[in-house]
Amino acid sequence: MNFTLERVPVFLVDDQEITGYVLNKIFSEDSRDDFILHATNNPFDALQKAQDVGPAVILLDLVMPGMDGLTLLEQFRQHPDFADTPIIMLSSQEESFFKAKAFEMGANDYLVKLPEKIELLARLRYHASAYYNLLKNRESHRILKEKELQFRIVTQSILEAIVASDLDGTVRFWNQGAATLFGYTLDEMIGQQVDRLFPQSFHSEFKESFKELIATGGLQKGELREWQGIRKNGQEFPMEISINSWTEEGRTLIASVMRDITQRKHEEDRIRYQANYDHLTGLPNRNFFVQHLDESISLARRQSVFFSLLFIDLDRFKWVNDTLGHEAGDLLLQEVAKRMKHCIRTTDTLGRLGGDEFTAILYDVSPHGTRLVARKILDELARSFWLQGNHVQISGSIGITLYPNDGENKEILLKNADMAMYVSKNAGKNRYWFFNPNENQ
Asked: What count of other Cβ atoms lies within 10 Å of the Cβ of residue 329?
């Protein structure tokens, strides 16, 4: 619809054709040429013709044969298309009663026909402009409502939690995803502080993010941060959050998009566990143990302390596998791991390199202390195992290297511990052996 005062349609209902002639002359002589006249002298078809025209202003003669102007005014006002269209009543004379009645029934103006040209055009432009402004406001309101509806449809259908708040942290928007994630309804959160969604330890971090947004106008585009959230029931959970701001009509809002990443964290933990731990015994695997050995060397070097590296090999493990089967062999490895874990401190590290080979790091311990632990491990391995209804007797052979005496890097320490283990095995098994360059050679 055209909302500008260009070729504005004016609809005249008057049984006297002279009125239309005069109006056409006035419009054609006007330098602005912004009105176009549509007219009928039959009040009974006026409604139908007006619908075809879509006028910005309607001029109604007060006195017409067969139907007076007030009756037609009432019909126009009852029709939804013309409920707000400006209607000007025309009369041959000033009649107070009819004038008052016309305004009471919804007329916008009353003219004694026809007034001076300047006055007539001014009144027509005033009413047409007011009508078009009304229509523009309605259209803007309709578009705004439509956008709001589209926004709500989108935001409410998104699974992620979307929360918008003022700069002081007061929640102004709360979608269904947020209600599902945190357990609060819309009524419970609107007007509340957004930091209630985070554990106390994250309050300051969230406020710092607010300050960063205010200072820079936004976080780095696409930046995601991992925080902890807290549900209505007090349960904490890991979540991913992106924060941004926008200003509308002079008002700045902070929008936070959040989603629960508990499942992803579990999957990451599972992958990390599989990468670092032996699936059978739950001990650190070769890669993780070697990495930990490297870290132990760095720590011992900084603190100027000693540690012992034990290389443990099971005697008769191949016999168990060949005689009782691999299932029994796996059970034996699990039981061996449990027993050896009880022989070391929580600050020490026990790992499985593979097969029947185990290693242990005894941190900040003397050679005498190392002997006691090694003897304890051998005693535990010498006790019989009950595997699938069978008593199984095995033993162990242990090679020991000391840091930094027997090597200052992991490769040399592991190599020397392995050599010492073979010496103990060749010496009769069920014993430990400290690495000695001369004896091992």
From this structure: 23
